[in-house]
Amino acid sequence: MSFDVLDEHEQGELVQKWLRENALAIIVGIAVGIAMIFGWQQWKAHRANETAAAASQYQALADAASSKNDDEAAKIAGALRSQYPNSTYAVLASLQMADIAVGKNDLTGATEQLDWARQHAKMTSLQSLIDLRTGRVKLAQGDAEGALKLADGVAADNYAVLTGELRGDALARLGRADEARKAYEAALAATDTQAIDRNMLQMKLDDLGAAAAVTEKPAT
Fold first, then answer.
1. In this structure, is residue 65 part of a structural domain?
2. In this predicted structure, what is the pLDDT of residue 119?
């Protein structure tokens, strides 16, 4: 006999029987559902608290760096990496420490900071920025090939100006003037006409042309 032909009494008895037989499963299901909702809310609150704490520490790091208090900055950066290794703020802290190291001409220290940042960065745009900064350090270390490889690995739509400039610098160092010129021109094309960096790019392009003219000048 199908359910829709049962009278009201029979339907009521059938429902009560089903509830008795499945009461435990229903109670467990409700409890699990409530626990999952509560757990999700707790997890979100925990993540929000972590993010706020990491942001506060990073601001303290930025203040210390601005005040040239490098020891304090290093201490805060270490705490950020230790306590919140998966946060973007920890990655940014390593970038800040890499900048401080470069300012001291500590290229090895800068490389270590950038390597840590690259291993923990999750956003593609941030990974690209780290690669470009690492390329700058490699160029300063005399590794133009390594710098060029990193620049070539950056997505075309990420930091077109920085990428073009790094490519130009690396190619110029390698003596590949024509390719360097094209890289500088591409960087200039992507630069805002009012940007301060535009003058530096134009100077590099002009210097490249002047160097080529001297090289090609016939002997008298």
1. yes
2. 95
- What angle (nearest 5°) sits at the alpha carbon of residue 171, between those of residues 167 and 176? 145
Q: According to the 3-state scheme, what is the secondary structure of 50-86? A: HHHHHHHHHHHHHHHHHCCCHHHHHHHHHHHHHHCCC
Show the domain range for 103: 60-122
* pLDDT for the residue numbered 195: 76
Residue 99 has pLDDT above 60, yes or no: yes
Single-letter code of the amino acid located at 215: T
Are residues 92 and 163 both part of a single domain? no
**Which residues, including other chains, have CB under 8 Å from residue 197's CB and lie 6 or more apart?**
161, 165, 191
Q: CA nearest 165: which of 214, 202, 209, 121?
A: 202
pLDDT of residue 157: 77
116 touches 81 (CB < 8 A):
yes
Burial class (CB in 10 A: 0-12, 13-18, 19+), 7: exposed
Last residue of one domain, picked from the residues 122, 140, 161? 122
Whole-model pTM over 0.85? no
